[in-house]
Write the structure tokens for this entry.
Amino acid sequence: QVQVVESGGGLVQPGRSLRLSCAASGSIFSINAMGWYRQVPGSERELVARIDDRGYRSYGDPVRVRFTISRDNDKNTVYLQMMRLKPEDTAVYYCNVNYLANAGGTSLDAWGQGTLVTVSS
């Protein structure tokens, strides 16, 4: 069993900041990467940010300058610091965990249930 829990979503005014958290727990041997994705109703889920086990970060183009992802490996937790939020950032944000359940196993993906971020004045 692997649990992925997001927190930190809410209503925020344009130009303000918000910080999301994601904690993974359960039968995890090692984590390859953790990341944030977002989805608006009627649209496909898109990459926001990801950080792998080496600390390498990648970002989707719309948030490349404004968002920062960080990690706490001891807690299996990642954070998404969102700056200068725009109305178009409004979406459900999902946390993804790519991991190994055991040594030599195949990589697996686990998803959180999502946290809603609404950017509106």
